[in-house]
TrEMBL record:
Gene Ontology biological process terms in this record: nucleobase-containing compound metabolic process
InterPro entries in the cross-refs: 3'-5'_exonuclease_dom, Exo_C, HRDC-like_sf, HRDC_dom, HRDC_dom_sf, RNase_D-like, RNaseH-like_sf, RNaseH_sf
Region (Disordered) residue spans: 291-310
Domain HRDC: 214-294
Alphabetized SUPFAM superfamilies for the sequence: HRDC-like, Ribonuclease H-like
Name the UniProt record assigns to this protein: 3'-5' exonuclease
Classification via SMART domains: 35EXOc, HRDC
Pfam families referenced in this protein's UniProt entry, alphabetically: DNA_pol_A_exo1 (PF01612), DNA_pol_A_exoN (PF18305), HRDC (PF00570)
Protein's UniProt keywords contain Hydrolase: yes
Length: 396
């Protein structure tokens, strides 16, 4: 499919054009297809740089959320409508920032997982379910570019062109497999989920952190990461374009004594000016000057069970419970033709096996599953498997 049915719509970039789109989509019928394009890898944060919509009776619309940063009026006009998104959890945070929050949604990627499709990317799903091939060449481009090139706009419009058709076909397939009610519970849970809390100590997710062992070195990673983040935010560029994770880890391991030593490290010497080198060396020096009590502790505070590889030594009975539970969940997931992680969160299985609920019966296990966020359909299917795994271990 090379062209949207009505051609590429003009980009909405002023209040008057936006008002017309809001009126048209409010008057449309049926679900609304929604997608957003971000500029990950180019800009700081995850904001939307293009929003695409399509609805029966309204056609397609491409909206520039830089020129029209408040789309709450559009969100309100579509408040009672089912929104169709592909991989909804990726787009919902940036849509929420501009005032678009669905009350009801249908996630075509998640529907594909539950229905047992081996490939659930939008292009693969449209091809296998509807028989159309979509051009997918522009997904990783810099969507903050202005004006957006016509081929990119065509690609963006095609992303919502067949989304409602895909939704309808997947609804029928899920119904045929007896999984539609499960999918609807999943969609409701996504729509009702509160915004994610900011990650604690995000610097600990620096790629290559496993090499950093000593607390002084951890302090350098933290100082360099936070300095990089401030610069990236101020310049509105991706942090990786300011300084690579590999360079941060390299400096932490080397603990360079001065700018000259820093410039000799990978990621710092090539084309980096003296002023830049001095700001990074200053960050290293700040970390070196920290007292012992100011240095970060190694590893994040562990909540929940230890890594499963340690279970055999720490608690052999728990290790046996986990082994039996995993085997049961794997068998059930295969029987239902869906990924194990969509049947039940692996973390939930680990927590229940590490500290089994008192009694270990269906009621207590079901309550524990619900407490960890499992939906009703998951509780119903997984409870017997976990009860059997806990009982098997008790018998042993």
């Amino acid at each position: 499919m090379l062209e949207p049915r009505e051609g590429i719509p003009p980009v909405v970039a002023d209040d008057a054009s936006l008002a017309k789109v809001i009126a048209a989509f409010a008057a449309g019928s049926g679900p609304v297809a929604v997608d957003a394009e971000r500029a990950s890898g180019y800009r700081y944060g995850q904001r939307a740089y293009l929003v695409q919509l399509r609805r029966e009776g309204a056609g397609s619309a491409l909206i520039d959320p830089v020129a029209c940063p408040d789309l709450s009026g559009l969100g309100e006009a579509l408040s009672g409508v089912e929104w169709v998104l592909h991989a909804a959890t990726q787009d919902l945070p940036c849509l929420r920032e501009i005032g678009m929050v669905p009350a009801r949604l249908f996630d075509t990627e998640l529907a594909g997982r539950l229905a047992g499709f081996p490939r659930v990317g939008l292009g693969a799903m449209v091809e296998s379910v509807l028989g159309f091939v979509l051009e997918k060449g522009h997904s990783a481009v810099d969507w903050s570019t202005r004006p957006l090139p016509e081929p990119w706009l065509r690609y963006a419009a095609l992303d919502v062109e067949l989304l409602v058709d895909l939704r309808d076909a997947l609804e029928k397939e899920l119904d045929r497999q007896g999984k539609l009610e499960w999918a609807l519970q999943e969609f409701d849970a996504i729509a009702a989920a509160p915004p994610a809390e900011p990650r604690k100590d995000p610097w600990r997710r620096t790629s290559g952190m496993h090499k950093v062992r000593r607390r002084r070195q951890l302090g350098v990673v933290r100082e360099l990461w936070e300095t990089r983040d401030r610069i990236a935010q101020r310049r509105d560029v991706s942090p990786g374009k300011v300084l690579s994770d590999a360079a941060i880890v390299e400096a932490a391991l080397a603990l360079p004594a001065n700018v000259h030593a820093l410039a000799a490290l990978n990621g710092f010497g090539h084309r980096m000016g003296r002023r830049q080198l001095e700001q990074w060396q200053a960050a290293v020096d700040r970390a070196k000057a920290l007292t012992e009590s100011q240095l970060p502790q190694p590893g994040q505070p562990v909540t929940g069970p230890p890594p499963p590889r340690a279970w055999a030594d720490k608690d052999p009975a728990a290790a046996a419970r986990l082994s039996a539970a995993r085997a049961g969940v794997t068998a059930l997931a295969e029987q239902l033709n869906m990924p194990q992680e969509n049947l039940v969160s692996p973390d939930t299985v680990r927590r229940i096996c590490w500290e089994p609920p008192k009694g270990g019966d269906a009621g207590s296990v079901g309550l524990a599953l619900t407490g960890y966020g499992a939906r009703a359909w998951q509780v119903e299917l997984v409870t017997p498997v976990l009860v059997a795994a806990l009982a098997k271990n008790e018998d042993a």
